[in-house]
Structures are given as structure tokens and as C-alpha cells.
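Lab notes, practical 5.
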Amino acid sequence: MRRVAAFVLTGLIAAVAVMPALAQSQQRTEVAQATRPRIVITPRRHEPGPNAKRECEARLVQQHRPSGTVIVPVMNCWWQ
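Output from the prediction step:
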């Protein structure tokens, strides 16, 4: 019986020790969410018309990486 009581007491002490840390992390999360700026993105123009075509331009570009220079495909598309 003493072992069970000691085990329960140890668990309660651990829980009480963790609670302030949880409260601080929740406060930090709330502060971070409260100060996050809002970004509004507006399109440059409205939806493309019914006769619009999508034009694309593809090319190969060199990228410098730690393992060495590689060539990767890059594609830019727009509506006309």
C-alpha cells in the first residue's frame, strides 16, 4: 500500500511541476497568434475571359547547391 501511495504522490508532484510550463507555452501561443499580421492578397485582374489562353514559357536554369551545380526546369505561365 505504501508503494502505491508513493507512486501516486510522485505522479501528482510531476503533474504539478509540468502545469506552469504548459500554462506558459499556451500564453506564448496566444500572444504569437494575436500579433500575427494579416496579409490580404488581391488579384491584379479578374478571372480570365471565356476565350482566354494560357501561355507558358519553359527554360532550363542553373542552380548552385552544396552538392554542386544542377540544371532544373522553370516554367512561367500567364493568361492572355
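Observations recorded by the TA: The longest strand covers residues 54-65. The chain is about 40% helix and 30% strand.
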